[in-house]
Structures are given as C-alpha cells and as structure tokens.
C-alpha cells in the first residue's frame, strides 16, 4: 500500500494489515488522515454498540504492592506512598453506592497485596454478587496462579484486566525488575481466557524506550490473543519513581492507537482512560470520538483517592462518586454519545 488513506480503509475492511503498513499508521498521520481514522472507528463502533458508552465503577481497594514496576507510583520501593487498605465493609459499601448510581460493573483494582488472600478476594466477589446479582465484577489485581484465577471465577468474577504493558521482552525488561517477565504475563492472560473470563490486556503509550516497532508487535500480539477489553493510556511520570524525569506519552499517540484498535477489534470494549483525561482536559471525550466505548469513573471513598497515585496529576481525586457519575454523563452527552445503565458485556 502506498498511502495512509488506503491503509485505513483496508484496515477497516480486513481488521488487520501487514506489519509495515501498521507501522506507517502508528508513526504519523496528517490531520485529514486522523479525521478518516476516527470517522472510520466511530462507524465500526456504532455498527456494533450504537451510541452507548458503558460505565465501570472503579474501586481502588489497596495501594500496597509487592511489585516494583519502574513506572508505577505505588511500587514497593516508593517510601513516600501513603499506604492504605479498604475494609471489606468499605468495599461493599462503595459497590452498593455505585449500584444506586447506575453502575452495573464493579472493578476491584489494587496493587498485588498479599494481605488480600484468595479467600478474602473470593469473599469480596461473592459478597458483591450476592447483593447485586445483575452486576458484573471485574478484577484487576495482577499476576496470580491459574488456581487462584479459577477460584475467583468460581466465586463469581466475570472479567479480568491485566495489561501486558509491552509484548517485546527487551522493552518489558526496561520497565520491570527481573522477577517480572512477559512470559508469565502472557501465561496469565492465556489462563484467564481458558478459564472463561472476559479478558482485558493493554499497554501504556510513550513509556521510556518504546518504539513504533514495539507498538506494532503489541498490535499483532493483541490480534492473536483476541481480548474482550483493551486498556490503553499515555504513560505519565510519577515524581517518586525511577522514571520521574521521562517524557509522558501524548494525546495524539493515544488517540491514533484507539482508532487503530477499534478497526482491528470491532467488538472490543475500549475505555477512554483516566490517564487520557489527565494529559488533556477533554482527553476522554476525544477518546470516545476516536472509537472508545467505556469510561471508568472512580467509586473509591474520597479519603483514599489521592493515595492511589499511579502517576502525577491524576484527575478527580477530590470528587465524590455521585459527582463523577454526573460529570461523566454530561461530558459524554456533549460529544453526542450516551451513558447507559448496563453490564456492557462483550457483544
Ligand atoms: N496491580 C494491577 C493493577 C495495576 S494499575 C496489575 O498489575 O494489573 C493499572 C494500570 O495502570 C497498569 O497496568 C499500568 O498500565 C497503568 N499505570 C501504572 N503506572 C502508570 C503511569 N505512571 N502512567 C500511566 N499509567 C500507569
């Protein structure tokens, strides 16, 4: 193929392209090409999901973590992090409030905190499902054994988010200490899929050392995995991590990738992330206009929100859940889409 317009139309038609053509799309687009990419992404997304935007209520229930990822503000070596854990009662209370605000998916996210044993996680999952059987429960608590994933699934968990962060082994090594490997990350994603979860992978854009070739590798890996959800957002440095002086990822990079992913995965659940809203005042709205169809407002109690600091400048840390819900609805409707009360399962 000789030009990007052709590549975009071909990608829309076939859902994939040779690596060299994906690379061209990842690298640079003119304003006209961007417009074509986003319009195509919206067309594909609306053919599957219409104008609906699904809500996920995020409960950040612990910022203790045994891992030491170089990019992350709650890494174990960060002595400045003010650590907290929510109690079971607090977590169920957050879920309950979320339910009353119209959330039908509750996401439990946290650091890899050994305090929350499999038994405790199972109790949380089954507790939420008992109170609200019409809610989906999503876990985002990192790398576990297959047996643990099976136990959470048997307790009622529906979905699991585990970004692979980068599928290139050398790049993975630049972002993580040696005890973490891309092989184990991929093993986890395979296990989760086989067990029957709706599975989410994903990457950050603009992490130190990331190249266009890495992003192409990620696109091809994700095509092969066939995830139900893909979480992507810009890398944003955190002042108390080894990456404090690195450049953040950009709005353009992230929007391009959202558009490309929508064309490659017409049915995928694709959030416009908080990190995207952090690097630009209307980043999440622009994400929706580039093909995203999910937003994840925060349900964590206001008192701990500013402690789940993965990166600097995170938005909405001072708001109450009800405020976030209202604000999100207004933002989405302003760009012509509609927040719906629904589990928002993979179509
Ligand atoms: N412990 C869980 C949850 C991690 S936090 C797990 O391992 O899956 C969720 C996501 O936030 C991470 O997967 C990572 O992609 C993103 N994240 C972490 N630090 C970040 C930073 N500095 N900038 C942007 N995103 C970040």
Classified by CATH, the class is Alpha Beta
Characterize the biggest β-sheet: 6 strands, parallel
Rounded to the nearest angstrom, the radius of gyration is 19 Å
Number of strand segments = 11
Share of β-strand residues = 5-15%
How does the helix and strand content classify structurally? alpha/beta
CATH superfamily: Aldolase class I
* Ligand types: S-adenosyl-L-homocysteine
Structural shape: globular
Label the CATH architecture: Alpha-Beta Barrel
CATH topology-level fold name: TIM Barrel
Please characterize this protein's 3D structure:
By secondary structure, the chain is an alpha/beta fold. The chain has one domain (34-340): TIM Barrel (Alpha-Beta Barrel). 45% of the residues lie in helices and 11% in strands. The protein has 14 helices and eleven strands. The strands form three sheets. It has a six-stranded parallel beta sheet. α5 (118-131) runs parallel beside α6 (146-154). The chain is globular, with a radius of gyration of 19 Å. The model has no long low-confidence stretch (mean pLDDT 97). Bound molecules: S-adenosyl-L-homocysteine (SAH). S-adenosyl-L-homocysteine (SAH) is lined by residues 71-72, 109, 111-112, 140-142, 162-163, 165, 204, 233, 235-236, 238, 275, 310-311.
Summarize the structure in short:
The chain is α/β, with parallel strands linked by helices.
